[in-house]
Amino acid sequence: MGSFELVDTPLSNEMDTALQQTLKEGESVVWAGPRLAAAAKKQSITAVLFGLTFTLFSALILYSLYSRASTSGKPLPVVPMLIVFPFLFVGLLFLFSPVLISQRTKRTFYAVTNKRALVMYLKKDGETVVHEYTPERLGNLTVRTGPHGAGDIIFQVIRRRVQGSGDWPEQRIFKGFLGVANVREVEGHLNALVASVPSN
Predict the structure, then answer these.
(1) How many CB atoms lie within 10 A of CB 126?
(2) Mean pLDDT of the chain
(3) Is 182 helix (H, G, I), strand (E, B) or coil?
(4) Backbone φ, ψ for residue 49 (5° rounding)
(5) Helix, strand or coil for residue 140?
(6) DSSP code of 33?
(7) Strands, sheet with 171-180, edge to edge from the N-terminal-most edge strand
(8) Is the whole model's pTM more than 0.70, yes or no?
(9) Would you give the DSSP letter of residue 124?
């Protein structure tokens, strides 16, 4: 089989209308495209693995508590149960999160204009959530290239560690264009936007 590249999919009418309403005076669109469905699959796999870890860990502890209570004839300990149940709840949330991730991906799209980069999301109530990145915030782009020319362009990485999490790894939240076709082409548009700002 020959190699091929994913091509940009046109915005839906709803997305295009939301984008046009977001533009400021003198602003024009250089590139725009929706988030790829493949990006949702990758994110869903990570969420499911995380959810399985939490759920199995919680289930094992609950089983251990139940077995000890059954053997000793004592009631289940309240405090350990209250500690474990939040972990079980979080695990189950992650297990079912792929449905939410898929729905959100279908309503997420990106744009590069002559003035800024836009990450946009259409809420079901018709409201448009807009995150804008001016050229000054796009100086340290990180590009992750995947199969067929698609990939991610990361503008910012937010690192969080849950308080009291001990040795648990920190959580990294990536901000930017996550899941775009022809990622190198889009990177070129962003670099041109950054270069268009006169240096002091």
Answers:
(1) 8
(2) 81
(3) coil
(4) -60, -45
(5) coil
(6) E
(7) 142-145, 151-160, 171-180
(8) no
(9) T
3-state secondary structure of 166: coil
Contact 75, 69 (CB under 8 A): yes
90 class by beta-carbon count within 10 Å (0-12 exposed, 13-18 middle, 19+ buried): middle
Cα separation of 117 and 107, whole Å? 17
pLDDT band for position 114 (cuts 50, 70, 90): very high
Answer yes or no: are the C-beta atoms of 60 and 54 closer than 8 Å. no
Is residue 161 scored above 80 in pLDDT?
no
Residue type, 68: R
Single-letter code of the amino acid located at 70 = S
Distance CA 38, CA 148 (A): 12
What per-residue confidence (pLDDT) applies to 199? 66
Q: Cβ neighbours of residue 11 under 8 Å, at least 6 residues apart?
A: 19, 32, 33, 34, 109
| Number of C-beta neighbours around residue 163 at 10 A | 5
